[in-house]
Amino acid sequence: MRAAFTLAVLLSFIASCSKPQVVPPLTPKFNELSDSDKVRLDQQRAIVSATAKKRYGTEGLTKTVTDLPVLQRLIDDNAFNKTQTYELQSLGVAFGDVLASELPVSWVMVTDEYGTDPTLRYKDKPVNINALTMISKRVERGEVVNLVQLLQVSRDQLRRWDEKQ
After folding, report:
1. Inter-residue contact 111 to 104 (CB < 8 Å)
2. Alpha carbon of 160 to those of 4, 71, 156, 164: distances in Å?
3. Within a 10 A sphere around the Cβ of 68, how many other Cβ atoms?
4. Residue 111, SS3?
């Protein structure tokens, strides 16, 4: 028994001393949205639209900057709490539609080291905005979310990226 324990400790020590394998990040691969991807995004938009209609009597979302007050109100009123990740990501989809109307970005699927998800791709560049989680991560961390500010930050970051090129 004592020998087995000593061997286990020794193997653990050896394993902790070995050099960690560093895996390079996967180069993002972008693909057009499939029909099922489009359906998924539409279902998420419908969640936000139905919640806004129920709470505030809105007629629907326009996918433009005119949606910002309604989306911001949903966030400010905690329409979805921090454990409702899917619903918060649905807000991200609705906000992503606003970004796509204001910036030269469009919805695509990205496959990277985190998996495959919908994202907003900047032109045909290897740059993307993860609108899906932009709101949910901030709410889950207890941060204040200001959509007008997020729109401006996104605009500024894309401009800076262009200036570097």
Report:
1. no
2. 59, 27, 6, 6
3. 17
4. strand
- Assess contact for 89 and 132: CB atoms under 8 A: yes
Beta strands in the chain (DSSP E): 29-31, 105-112, 115-122, 128-129
Domain boundaries, the chain: 28-164
Pairing of strands 105-112, 29-31: antiparallel
Q: Measure the CA–CA gap between 147 and 165, rounded to whole angstroms.
A: 27
Q: What is the pTM of this model?
A: 0.83
pLDDT digits (tens, 9 = 90+) for 15-32: 344 444 555 667 889 999
Token pair for residue 158? 């894309």
What one-character DSSP code corresponds to residue 126? S
Does residue 113 have a pLDDT over 70? yes
Q: Which residues, 6+ apart, have CB-to-CB distance to 91 below 8 Å?
A: 48, 71, 74, 75, 80, 135, 136
The CATH number of 28-164 is which of 1.10.10.10, 3.40.50.300, 1.20.120.1090, 1.10.287.370?
Answer: 1.20.120.1090
Q: What number of H helices and E strands is found in the chain?
A: 6, 4
Which of 51, 58, 56 shows the shortest CA–CA distance to 90? 51
